[in-house]
């Protein structure tokens, strides 16, 4: 158990809908990262937050947004869902900002868009 | 965005054998290279990591070998066990924040 929690574990929804994925980092970790894992694209970085502020953006679609709250939990919002958004979404957390910081992954949310 | 190329895509090894997975990266400025292990239905778990100031790091049956001049690093699993059957990902720092760029993954199967 990495100490990172994600809810829900599974999510099935229809095209055009909006969903929210939730992540709680390990106790004491200030950075939260969101990654998407799909069969054809592998593990792709989406976005990082550090202590409530956006730190880095990857290949995140404009239909997707995220935020980190004062209690450090984070939410990833996916809107106008398309079939191609079906994937595993992972949250990871780390303690600080140096490149040596180990990232610990949560169990993921499996999103299925029908 | 930095690319990390991982090979092979799949690997079958007999129990007790050595599993070797290779990764190549592009940017010599980066300084942290982790390996993750992922079982079906689970999130990636940090297995072992190396910094480029050393050429090798060993933790139990897992060893990372690092070749800075060739911009390559590899994972060696000694005495491979069926319980090691999983997908392994190498990673390197990306170009923004503290993100990681992952290799494409290697699906390892260890036959009993």
3D architecture notes:
The complex is a heterodimer of chains A (114) and B (112). Chain A has 114 residues and is mainly β. Chain A has no helices and 11 strands. In chain A, the strands form 2 sheets. In chain A, strands 2, 4, 5, 6, 9, 10 and 11 form a 7-stranded mixed beta sheet that branches. A 4-stranded antiparallel beta sheet of chain A has the order 1-3-8-7, with no helix packed on it. Chain A is globular, with a radius of gyration of 13 Å. Chain A starts with a strand and ends with a strand. In chain A, 39% of the residues are buried. With 112 residues, chain B is mostly beta strands. Helix content of chain B is 0%, strand content 54%. Chain B has no helices and 11 strands. In chain B, strands 2, 4, 5, 9, 10 and 11 form a 6-stranded mixed beta sheet that branches. In chain B, strand 7 and strand 8 form a beta hairpin. In chain B, 34% of the residues are buried. Chains A and B meet through strand 5, strand 6 and strand 10 of A and strand 5 and strand 10 of B.
Write the layout of secondary structure elements.
The complex is a heterodimer of chains A (114) and B (112).
Chain A: E1 5-7, E2 10-13, E3 19-24, E4 31-38, E5 42-50, E6 53-57, E7 64-68, E8 74-78, E9 87-94, E10 104-105, E11 109-113
Parallel strand pairs in A: 2-11
Antiparallel strand pairs in A: 1-3, 3-8, 4-5, 4-9, 5-6, 7-8, 9-10, 9-11
Chain B: E1 4-7, E2 10-14, E3 19-25, E4 33-38, E5 45-50, E6 56-59, E7 62-67, E8 72-77, E9 86-93, E10 100-102, E11 106-111
Parallel strand pairs in B: 2-11
Antiparallel strand pairs in B: 1-3, 3-8, 4-5, 4-9, 6-7, 7-8, 9-10, 9-11
The share of residues in extended strands of chain B comes to: over 45%
Largest sheet of chain B: 6 strands, mixed
Rounded to the nearest angstrom, the radius of gyration of chain A is 13 Å
| Total strand segments of chain B | 11
Biggest interface goes to:
A-B, 29 and 26 residues
* Class inferred from helices and paired strands of chain B: mainly beta
Give the N-terminus to C-terminus distance of chain B in angstroms. Answer: 40 Å
Number of helices of chain A: 0
Estimate what percentage of residues of chain A fall within beta strands. over 45%
Order of helices and strands of chain B: EEEEEEEEEEE
């Amino acid at each position: 158990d990495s100490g990172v929690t994600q809810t829900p574990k599974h999510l099935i929804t229809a095209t055009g809908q909006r969903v929210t994925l939730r992540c709680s980092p390990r106790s004491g970790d200030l950075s939260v990262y969101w990654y998407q894992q799909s069969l054809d694209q592998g593990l792709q970085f989406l976005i990082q937050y550090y202590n409530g502020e956006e730190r880095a953006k990857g290949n995140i679609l404009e239909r997707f947004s995220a935020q980190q709250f004062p209690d450090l939990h984070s939410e990833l919002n996916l809107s106008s869902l398309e079939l191609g958004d079906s994937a595993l979404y992972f949250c990871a957390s780390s303690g600080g900002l140096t490149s040596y910081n180990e990232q610990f992954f949560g169990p993921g949310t499996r999103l299925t868009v029908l | 965005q930095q690319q990390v190329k991982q090979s092979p895509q799949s690997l079958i090894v007999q129990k007790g054998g050595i599993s070797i997975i290779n990764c190549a990266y592009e940017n010599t400025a980066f300084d942290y290279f982790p390996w993750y292990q992922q079982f079906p239905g689970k999130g990636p778990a940090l297995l072992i990591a190396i910094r480029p100031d050393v050429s090798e790091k060993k933790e139990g049956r897992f060893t990372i070998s690092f070749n800075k001049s060739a911009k390559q690093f590899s994972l060696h699993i000694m005495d491979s066990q069926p319980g090691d059957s999983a997908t392994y990902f190498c990673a390197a720092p990306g170009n923004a924040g503290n993100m990681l760029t992952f290799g494409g993954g290697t699906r390892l199967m260890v036959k009993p």
